[in-house]
Design brief:
The complex is a heterodimer of chains A (about 120) and B (about 240).
Chain A: H1 3-39, H2 43-56, H3 61-73, H4 77-90, H5 95-120
Chain B: H1 4-29, E1 31-40, E2 51-59, H2 63-66, H3 69-72, H4 76-91, E3 95-98, H5 110-115, H6 117-127, E4 131-143, E5 146-153, E6 160-167, E7 169-182, E8 188-201, H7 207-223, E9 229-238
Parallel strand pairs in B: 2-3, 2-4
Antiparallel strand pairs in B: 1-9, 4-7, 5-6, 7-8
Classes of the chains: A mainly alpha (about 120), B alpha/beta (about 240).
Amino acid sequence: MTRPAALVLLAWTAAIGCAGYSHTEKAKSQIAFGSEVARKGLWREASFRFEQAIAKEPNNARAHNNLAVALEATGEYARALAEYKRALELDPKDTYIRRNYARFAEFYTSYTRTSGKAASGS
Amino acid sequence: MARNRPVRFLASLLALLLVPFFSATPALAGVSQVRLKLPLKPRLPLRGNERIALAPFLIVADADRARDKRLQNVDLQAEFHRFLKKQIDKKTKLEVIETPPDLKLPTQNLSELGRAAEFWRSVGILTAAEIVVSGSLEFRVEDRSGYKTEEYTSPINGQTYYRQMYVEQTGFVFDIVFLVFDGRTGEKILQDEFKDFRQTGGRRADELQGLFENLFSLENQILNLFVAREREADRYIFSD
């Protein structure tokens, strides 16, 4: 390979790498900011940040998990369930995601059971 | 100098290999636990300022339990009514109305009580309440004393043994079935059941104290029938 060709190849590889890295980094910064505001109890803002992270990196299990927690905190339980499921689908072995999902499933089952009863009045 | 070269090369190689390891460690640590207050919608579709009549509840007790002297000291109907009225007054904007003391339930069967629409409509008219609450109450005191296996480490030889210990315990069981009726039509709009079990040390634990332990642990669930409540839960979030 000639020297200019090698340089072009190197630049192209670096550009591709940087583009991917930049997306990951943007998602990471949104997750970091989102989790910071979540710890302060600002769940709407956190939810928005985690959605942004997912838009940048749709297969990020951690972002889906965090979004599920934020949705739970704001009472959007049906959406939270979908996000937990997606997070588990993407990373079925993550202990924290599994634990969150198990606890949520327990709560959600009892919640829907009681809400259903109230609605039907049976 | 030349002899140091392989050593320096190996050190650089080792450093290069360790860089990804150390940079990956914070990623594992980037998890924190958060406490959520999960909003729970009220179970009854209410505006929040309705008039609510507290009718008598059926008291469930079999013959043996009816003879239990400890339960004879507890006026379950009065204690529960007082508790429910106080909680609703304190934590909701509903207006609580007590039904006349001579009001008699038309049946002692819970299913039939749920279907007695005409009776509940008359209670609604009598009290001018939009909602009428009734149901059944069961309170049991159980002697849970018995032998339990306990781990024991000998101070002499340091070995662990298992021994049988007699433990005196009392269990308090509380079971409420709520029936909620529309005061205008007498139709049942909700039925739900709450159960609680508490266990305390000692054979002669106080029954009234046990009853209130049960009631306070069910307080959130009972109030959630009428108003929005919150439930605390812990979850993990990732910070990277």
